[in-house]
Design goal:
- The chain is largely without helices or strands and 128 residues long.
- The strands form two sheets. It has a three-stranded antiparallel β-sheet, with no helix packed on it. A two-stranded parallel ribbon has the order 4-5.
- It is globular and about 45 Å long.
């Protein structure tokens, strides 16, 4: 996963496959309003992302969000005016965008392709 708390630079965290895992995203925040953006940074290219089954390696299920005592979740206050879906090939999907050895999970990166910066520039939701 790749995430940002309060518009900080994106951070990367590995999610163990098929594990029931708690992943801490922030700590020590002031008792105030905060934003959280989460992106599925990568999945295995060999995993079938189009015909998903319950045991697919391409499924990420978020089952909850743990907050500090007294904290609460609210909807994002302002949604983008439009939603767009970039249509393309593996380049659009970020395949080998980082050009690092070590396989799909370290070399692919959808948030560094041409599609990702469209969102703020066009006031749009852009799934990556």
């Amino acid at each position: 996963l790749q995430y940002s708390v309060d518009n900080t630079p994106l951070k990367l965290v590995a999610v163990p496959p098929r594990a029931n895992t708690t992943i801490p995203l922030a700590s020590g925040l002031k008792n105030d309003l905060h934003t959280l953006e989460v992106f599925v940074f990568n999945s295995l290219q060999s995993a079938d992302r189009w015909h998903l089954t319950s045991n697919s390696a391409a499924i990420l299920t978020v089952t909850g969000l743990v907050l500090d005592d007294g904290a609460s979740v609210r909807p994002f206050p302002t949604l983008a005016r439009r939603s767009i879906i970039p249509y393309g090939d593996s380049i659009t999907d970020g395949v080998q965008a980082l050009r690092q050895p070590g396989g799909d999970l370290v070399a692919n990166a959808p948030t560094v392709t041409w599609a990702f910066p469209l969102a703020p520039g066009l006031d749009a939701e852009v799934p990556v």
